[in-house]
Structure formats: structure tokens, C-alpha cells
Amino acid sequence: xxxxxxxxxxxxxxxxxxxxxxxxxxxxxxxxxxxxxxxxxxxxxxxxxxxxxxxxxxxxxxxxxxxxxxxxxxxxxxxxxxxxxxxxxxxxxxxxxxxxxxxxxxxxxxxxxxxxxxxxxxxxxxxxxxxxxxxxxxxxxxxxxxxxxxxxxxxxxxxxxxxxxxxxxxxxxxxxxxxxxxxxxxxxxxxxxxxxxxxxxxxxxxxxxxxxxxxxxxxxxxxxxxxxxxxxxxxxxxxxxxxxxxxxxxxxxxxxxxxxxxxxxxxxxxxxxxxxxxxxxxxxxxxxxxxxx
Length: 293
Hints:
CATH architecture of the largest domain: Orthogonal Bundle
Number of helices: 12
Number of strands: 3
Helix content: 55-70%
Shape: elongated
Oligomer: single chain
Radius of gyration: 23 Å
CATH superfamily of the largest domain: Intergrase catalytic core
CATH topology of the largest domain: hpI Integrase, Chain A
CATH class of the largest domain: Mainly Alpha
Number of domains: 2
């Protein structure tokens, strides 16, 4: 049983049974392709012949290539998921990744914008579509993939909520600010309806040819908005999500509520933002004290 033979089956399983996004599937494809190239170097053509030493040698190769610990951890996680599926399907008898631990990752704090920077970023954007995108990324704390999947029908202006599909196809309702809702309404009435959209196009955000916006296009929107606003920080769409969570906690929001809005399966992921809030408070205190001296 060779790797290429079962990779297609495995990816179909991830797509149909687990509902993973095309972006995540592409990452799995790339990781398995690289693993397959390594097996060819070892002249291993049968997955049943791989063992713990094989996986450890692959991890060592990744370190020799100076891959970041986070990248190695992701590749090992992909292999663990793959081998678990092979066991479940009865294709192999032993899981060579079973007792292997992921590399320890340094717990860095994500970059965030302060509230003044968010205002500059959004209000400096004159394009009505792009302003609506920025408002929604920040006001809803959405992942870029969640925003690209949004359809017009997912907006509920009466209740002030947007329905989005998160990781693992988990659906959640996210409340939006009045300014975000207004920006989206203006975009829908003044921009989207004038674009060359097909009558059956469901996407909320479309390009100027009328097709659904891609992840890359949204990244470009954020990068250009930062440049226009004179923000020197290297920000991405996810920076707005980080900023959204941090500002909510700084404002006294309940941690569980923020977890629900972000769609985190584990509250420990949400707790990371409390450290950013504490850092912000320490900085504000230090600045205030210096002003008094």
C-alpha cells in the first residue's frame, strides 16, 4: 500500500466527513507530499513498513532544514491524523506516531492594533466594499476563511447578527456593531448590486467581476488599508481578530462570551488574550506613572 494510493481517499474523508476547508486540505496535501518524497529517499514504498524510527528521521530532516518548530509540529500533527485514519480503516496494524510528542512551541503573544489604529485603518478606507470587509473582520472577529465563505443570506440586519461557519464546520452567530452593519448595508446597496454578479451568486463579498472574493484578495485589502492609514506594523486579517478579542477583554467582556464569539473549541486558546490585556494595562500604568513624576 503506497502513500499516493491512500492519500486521495484520506483527503476525501477529510473533505466529506470532517468538512475541512480547501485551505486546510491543501496544507494536508503538501505535508503528505513532502513525507512521500522522504519515503522515496529511503526506498520505502509500503506504508506498513514505516515505523517510529521512520517518523523520527523525518522530523530530524525537518530540523536540519531549519524549519520552525511550529511547522514541524503541524507536519507531525498531519501525520498523526493520517495514521489514525489508516488504523481506523484497517489499512495498517501499528501507528508509528502514537507515542511521539510534538515539539514544544514558544508561546508568543499575537500582534494587535490599539483602538486608535483600528479607527485609522477603517476610517481611512474610502472604498465602500473594502471598508465593509475591515469593519466585519474587526467587529465580528472573523477568520479570513470564514469571511470568504459568507453569503448574503448569512447577514441578519434585524437581529444584528452574522452567521458563519468556523473550523470543523461549527456554525455560530456573531453579534455585530451598528457601524459594521451600516457599512455592510451601504456596500450591498451601493456597490454589490452594481457589480456584474451572476443572478445565482450567493457570496456576500465579491470582486469587481462579480465572483466570490478569495483569501488572497482579502489579505491585499488589509495590507493596502494599513499602508493608507500609515500603520507600520506588519498586520494581516488575523490581526483584526486578535485585536477584536483583546479589546473586548480590556473592556470587561466575559471570557466565555469571547470564546463563543471567536468559535474557539478550547477556552485556553481564548485565555491567551488575557495576557495581552494585562500587558496593555501594565504599559498604561507605567506611562501614567512617568507622567506624574
